[in-house]
């Protein structure tokens, strides 16, 4: 008997608002949350835009102790965990804690806190032998981002397996894939799974600048991220978190849980090609899509919406358009595709989970979020990218993909659990 | 940057030295040979390697090289032309 | 690719269930090892030194430690990166990744896997990480903050991050199958092997697993000082004495192990040269929040791993302990061992007393060491410890001990509450 995994709770911190409701309003309005960086003086940088969260830890329910102890990314994760648990209606204290697991994605961990503390202990970069006497007690927790998974798990009363999954920009899909695996194999019945990232800091700006990955379109920050547009010029950094409550289907049904969608298939591949580069043919991403379809026992024609990686770099958007055509054949032309990074930026390790949350909401509401800022189609990119405005459409099967530094390519399929049983 | 720079011509020898420092040397490639018109890609250098070496040139020579150089300059000769022809501006 | 242009099917295109039942659960075996450790570079050097009780701990030389309360570490000796790493990779890799690539090369060669032996999507890479490539990261932070953003390397975008070892290993060996990176601090080595077995069970013939870490730079040192768990003893032979009455904290080291985890059937088919042992059982748990009043979940991890392997406690011939080296954490582990195996009920050893704790590399090296012990029928010692604190009612192995070993249990704990356990069984 195959154990199937469903999404029964959502919690989100995203640019444009804290909470699922604000998140969905932003996405369906086609509004963008990208702006000129306000967290630090970004004037030396080539790219000076980002999608920042207006996040007030106290207003979000964190105690002063939690705010002091936790990196910004961990704060996002804890706040999202609370919302997701409340949304699921699950009383974890009534469950066997050993059957609840934790899987948290993050690409760059507690980088904001680490850089802040580095500046202190190194005296502004002057000392190689940094000074331990200025180190805060939390420094080791920031140094090992696994601490964030422990924090989330302990928040939820989970005592099953816990880990941070860190596969660059596919972390947010891979952490969910990992969680699905733990439920399917019978290790856990419930997973607190998702991803978090708070990467907007000078060192992140500097390293993306150095490889021209981020857009230099600083004059119009609100339309700086232009996936699939002819004028696209790079990604826009974002931040945020999405935590999902995942449950085994039958036990979710028994307790009468609200089910957003089933995670029907997942696969990850590596391109083994380049740490940052992509080949235009999208072969390994297509391979991941095919394998996810196999796992879900779905044919490509079942897919009725694709939530694209759509980072807005020249290379990525070609690469994944190639992958969709490779896997879906002619059906790719009939399938609406959109990139919500146009609105909330690219939150690296978190974005995959934020996108799956958006996919679950799209299925729930029968509305597909658009690709904002897509005014001038790129003649090389000839799919239906849902420009500018959300589209009403009943959606039963959704594909979401991710692509990350390190060569990681991942694909996940959501479907309605009531489709014919396996 | 505190270094004061006088504008000097960047030679092929300078460039190959910096390529070695910034990006290493592909096995089977002789950077000391006639590589002026050999595409970077055939020398084993990808766009990251070029970005890294362009960064080094900018720092050492105190010049600003346009963003497009990494795409447009496909060979050492083309990159040197771009740097030495005045398209690069003092930083 | 059989889709039609008319598209939008009216019925979901669900495929029928396959006619055949899922395959019988496969056995995951380890067919290759690559080791870089403070007391030995390469498997045989390491194993010889470990059995001889030769420690690799000493005063740190990779940076000047004199200003710090802790000065002892475990550095991998005699590693000349240029002899192992192509020139093109040198500027874009940290010491950690170079060690990892070298250990992976050795493991693949040890397993006798040549390019083309296995399908490209049939090979995956799962590594553990803790704090990333810290030395590379510190250098770039320093470049940024002391000189400016134009001094930051183009390679910084990936060279420091947690996924770098998996990415570079997959590229170097053209392994395109399912891959991953797990972070559970010191428990990660065991988790990566457990996860590799998961992939093998799903039909991936071979997965490179384990962990190699290296945080011996000031920016890797100071956070560990802040943890309050590091030893401040300056005599290398007395600084890290797990389970002893003098236990005073841990000593960090660099290195680790890469293990080739393979489907037993597939290994047989390709004529694998040797099988070190089987990954028979695995489990992981998370401790409850501090102050919750609930007990640690270490015992459950160990018991679940034994149950997963289908072995009883009396079947276990040796335990490779986490051996944190602080009195409280040692007491907690010794208590769990007594609860499961009875007082002094099983030989317990901590060869990491000779290497220091290797962060993400530590538990992977313990697993590799356990496999070597199973192969040769000898338990390596806990060096430097004359006897266990009598308060710990464990049979601590303090000198190499020959024994008929069939089953080993590896325990690992990660800072913040992570527990992992691995049961390894000798190949027949």
Automatic annotation (TrEMBL), chain A:
SMART domains: PKS_KS. GO terms for cellular component: cytosol. It comes from the Bacteria. InterPro entries: Beta-ketoacyl_synthase, Ketoacyl_synth_AS, Ketoacyl_synth_C, Ketoacyl_synth_N, PKS_Beta-ketoAc_synthase_dom, Thiolase-like. SUPFAM superfamilies: Thiolase-like. One of its GO terms (molecular function) is 3-oxoacyl-[acyl-carrier-protein] synthase activity. One of its GO terms (biological process) is fatty acid elongation. Residues 2-416 form the Ketosynthase family 3 (KS3) domain. Belongs to the thiolase-like superfamily. Beta-ketoacyl-ACP synthases family. This is Act minimal PKS ketosynthase (KS/KS alpha). It comes from Streptomyces pini.
Automatic annotation (TrEMBL), chain B:
It comes from the Bacteria. GO terms for biological process: antibiotic biosynthetic process. GO terms for molecular function: phosphopantetheine binding. Residues 10-87 form the Carrier domain. Gene3D superfamilies: ACP-like. Keywords: Phosphopantetheine, Phosphoprotein. This is Act minimal PKS acyl carrier protein. The lineage of its organism: Bacteria, Bacillati, Actinomycetota, Actinomycetes, Kitasatosporales.
UniProtKB/TrEMBL annotation, chain C:
Keywords: Acyltransferase, Transferase. GO terms for biological process: fatty acid biosynthetic process. Belongs to the thiolase-like superfamily. Beta-ketoacyl-ACP synthases family. It holds the Pfam family ketoacyl-synt. GO terms for molecular function: 3-oxoacyl-[acyl-carrier-protein] synthase activity. Residues 25-426 form the Ketosynthase family 3 (KS3) domain. The keyword Acyltransferase applies. It comes from the Bacteria. Residues 1-21 are annotated as: Disordered. This is Act minimal PKS chain-length factor (CLF/KS beta). It comes from Streptomyces pini. Gene3D superfamilies: 3.40.47.10. SUPFAM superfamilies: Thiolase-like (SSF53901).
